[in-house]
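We modelled each protein-ligand pair independently. The example shown here corresponds to the fe (ii) ion entry; the chain sequence is given first, followed by the ligand as SMILES.
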Amino acid sequence: MSFTLPDLPYAYDALGSYMSKETLEFHHDKHHNAYVTTGNKLLEGTGLENASVEEVVKASFGKNQPLFNNAGQHYNHLHFWNWLKPNGGGKPPGAIAKKIDEDLGGYDKFKEDFIAAGVGQFGSGWAWLSVKDGKFVIQKTPNGENPLVHGATPILGVDVWEHSYYIDYRNRRPDYLKAFLENLVNWEYVEKLYGEIK
Ligand SMILES: [Fe+2]
């Protein structure tokens, strides 16, 4: 199964000033598209041509770095577009809120720690809310890496590569992360992913 670039699940200008049309055009049409086209070239002859993106990510980790980088970023961005929605953000719905209370010390602590993970990821990478051994954990990874290769399943992730925020926020990564949680997160998609692994 070769990689394909999905359309955004909303209009390019749907996220307003929190994530501009210009950012989404560059990020989706140029950056994500490059991971798809480069990933497809690198898949040729690996024997992984018919594997799912998750399988390619796991199989290439530590073995084929160029393929891993592109497959990882394809997986990350497939979900990232769905982790955003117009008028999103705020407190999570019931089951997710309860689990955040149990495992992460409540929403306010989660918010603080998730933002700290994103700010603390030196250089490019991602911050995550993942499920590991049945518990919610906050993680951060460099470059195209993700929790799949660290024994966890991501249910929320935020891209902290500069291509995700520099047009709208310049160097203010903390402001971008705050806006992500307060105004952009699609908690219904988080709930859906969590439901699939229970
Ligand atoms: Fe990105």
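The chain has a mean pLDDT of 97.
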